Amino acid sequence: MTASLAGLDATRVLDPAAYALGDRAPRLALRPGAAAEVAAALEAATRDGLTVVPWGGGTRHDRTRAPERYDLALDLSALDRVIEYDPEDLTLTAECGVTLARLGELVSAKGQELPLESAHAARATLGGTLATNDSGPRRLRLGAPRDRILGARFALADGTLARSGGKVVKNVAGFAIHRLLCGSRGGLAVLLEASLKLLPAPDARVALVYPASPGQIAERRRWELLPRLEPAFVTVLGANPNGHGPATSEAPFAVVVGLEDDAAWVTEQERRMVATLGNPVARLVGAEFVELLMSLADAGHAGAPRLTFTSAHNTPAALAPLLSRPEAARLVFHAPAGRLHWFPAAKDSSALVRELFGLGFTPIEAAGGARFDPAIPPEVGVLALRRRLRAALDRTGTLALGIINPAS
């Protein structure tokens, strides 16, 4: 397939080497400028028997194994218009190539917040964040992307353009295909535009940073107040990788507590935290708080190999059996959300998965050479459902990332 065959002019052709997955580059890379051009490219790819990988900012493709066949990279970054923003209704509709940073700046000027978090927000796109269902330290507070999406426009593998949901909160018509696409990683359809529920920005924000020893983290009574206080986030950082309080041999970890709400409640939350944990080594507000949030989202994707786990454990004490391991120096644990990011040596990843699974941490993602333990198979029913969905939405296997591989 050439650009002209797909209905695109030659200026839409890009260097395929820039879209390599691992050591495998596609035969062709295109950057469509409109939804109709995306549809034309997909229709041509299906007709010619080519496989396609959608691209946004490329911030998550370090987790993606190269598919066995990889013919066309479809760069969606030119689809970056904000289509409709209604501050009074707290809704926004935008094309999926727009970055989270740009959307965040737009809504913050109106005293509102984009309830999506992703690493490298300056490059991460709306479509990529939705497609990976990605989240950060405030996942429990904000919900996952599939909880914030109201509707979407998307292209199926054969080039058919479709819509699901709507642009308002009360829209309940039809099947919620837009939510189904969140987390599908571009393996079921290509997201083109999406409508989101926004949030009012909180009146007050405070982050408290505490150095911590393994013994302090393991002390369950120390964290008993957290569920009642409902902090915005509580993140444990191995070896203080973000520089918030110097790590020492006695206190090699950092615990960062984020408080967001009306001013009176944040003041009371902070009073109770200090009464229990003592005075923090750092107190961050305003722009420093926002910068911290971004750095915590980045920290979960700061290296490779990487394993990500989910768990019902929601306090730092859940890490107690793990803190003596050398790899613990690089962990990132968003405690209320139950999300643990771990950066082991690739050769150790299977053994680590086995150990953490026994401690109540379920592996959900492996990247950069890390592997799941084959002794922990994925749910057979889940894989069967994924196969049926793929058969319904991409009958020809055009979308290469729809191949079911739980270790990818």
Task: Write a structural description.
There is one protein chain. The chain is an alpha+beta fold and about 400 residues long. The protein has two domains: about 1-200, Uridine Diphospho-n-acetylenolpyruvylglucosamine Reductase, domain 3; about 205-365, Vanillyl-alcohol Oxidase, Chain A, domain 3. The protein has twelve helices and 19 strands. The strands form four sheets. It has an eight-stranded antiparallel beta sheet with strand order 15-12-14-13-17-18-16-19, with helices on both faces. It has a five-stranded antiparallel beta sheet with strand order 5-6-10-8-9. A four-stranded mixed beta sheet has the order 1-2-4-3, with helices on one face. The protein is globular. The chain starts with 12 loop residues before the first strand and ends in a 15-residue tail after the last helix. Residues about 240-245 and about 405-408 have low confidence and may be disordered.
